[in-house]
């Protein structure tokens, strides 16, 4: 019998407002240990806000948030690197408390930089990197600290699709080997399909769950016809939400004009 997995994050009836703007309305979901769970939704629907709530950086107005993990890695939408440190030192820096030995720290940092195809840029400073390269450093840094759960906010959005495929493959390898729990936020359906065990498709603001999809190993393959089928299916779900959002904006405009 399959062992029941522990739930690391659970939202029950969560509501979140910023002033008069209702961003999240009655959001319910769970993230089981060892799964890669993607959140996919339109720009501005509340994905980053949800990650910030999970990280404890934002309070909710109503509902409960259960967090059953000790440490978390957060890859923010904007990579937050220390500009005065090299790529290698940006990673070694976060390992200082856990790994006292400098050589060991560097080995770990280099291992993750290699996975993100960045070895040759280890001595560069952040200002000398492209946007996508900075994002890859922040992915390497989050993996290196070996947290229970990693929150990733569109880490590969600045990267061309062929390289993204390589990076996603590397990421999948280590996530499987190290059985990590990941919450991956994206508006790229292909990223979500390639990586996830489970995808939560979100509605436009105020955000709720629109649909929960379970992705099997065989579907996580760009050459599988089911991949394209699911891609189209999710695109249509998001198109529906875009339509709802437009109608809603027109309704608000007409109220203002009246
Ligand atoms: N600190 C804040 N104060 C006021 N409004 C905020 C704040 N943070 C987010 N919002 C608003 O909440 C909504 C959701 O923002 P959020 O950043 O969560 O969206 P998102 O789904 O991550 O979008 P994107 O895909 O463009 O990154 C937006 O309308 C945004 O303006
Ligand atoms: Mg965001």
Automatic annotation (TrEMBL):
It comes from the Bacteria. Pfam families: ABC_tran. The keyword ATP-binding applies. Keywords: ATP-binding, Nucleotide-binding, Transport. GO terms for molecular function: ATP binding; ATP hydrolysis activity. Residues 9-229 form the ABC transporter domain. The keyword Lipid biosynthesis does not apply. SMART domains: AAA. SUPFAM superfamilies: P-loop containing nucleoside triphosphate hydrolases (SSF52540). Signal peptide: none annotated. This is ABC transporter ATP-binding protein.
């Amino acid at each position: 019998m399959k062992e029941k997995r522990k739930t690391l994050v659970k939202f029950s009836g969560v509501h979140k407002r910023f002033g008069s703007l209702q961003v999240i309305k009655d959001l319910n979901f769970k993230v089981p240990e060892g799964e890669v769970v993607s959140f996919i939704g339109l720009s501005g629907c509340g994905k980053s806000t949800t990650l910030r709530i999970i990280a404890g950086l934002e309070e909710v107005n109503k509902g409960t948030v259960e967090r059953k993990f000790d440490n978390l890695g957060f890859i923010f939408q904007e990579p937050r690197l220390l500009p005065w440190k090299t790529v290698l030192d940006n990673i070694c820096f976060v390992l200082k408390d856990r790994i006292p030995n400098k050589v060991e720290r560097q080995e770990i940092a280099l291992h993750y930089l290699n996975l993100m195809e960045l070895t040759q840029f280890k001595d560069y400073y952040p200002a000398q990197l492209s946007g996508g390269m900075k994002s890859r450093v922040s992915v390497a840094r989050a993996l290196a600290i070996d947290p229970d759960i990693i929150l990733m906010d569109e880490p590969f959005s600045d990267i061309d699709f062929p390289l993204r495929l390589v990076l996603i493959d590397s990421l999948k390898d280590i996530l499987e080997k190290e059985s990590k729990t990941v919450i991956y936020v994206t508006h790229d359906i292909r990223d979500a399909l390639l990586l996830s065990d489970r995808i939560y498709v979100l509605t436009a603001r105020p955000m709720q769950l629109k649909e929960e999809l379970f992705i099997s190993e065989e579907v996580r393959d760009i050459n599988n016809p089911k991949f394209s089928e699911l891609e189209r299916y999710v695109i249509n779900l998001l198109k529906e939400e875009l339509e709802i959002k437009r109608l809603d904006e027109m309704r608000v405009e007409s109220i203002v004009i009246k």
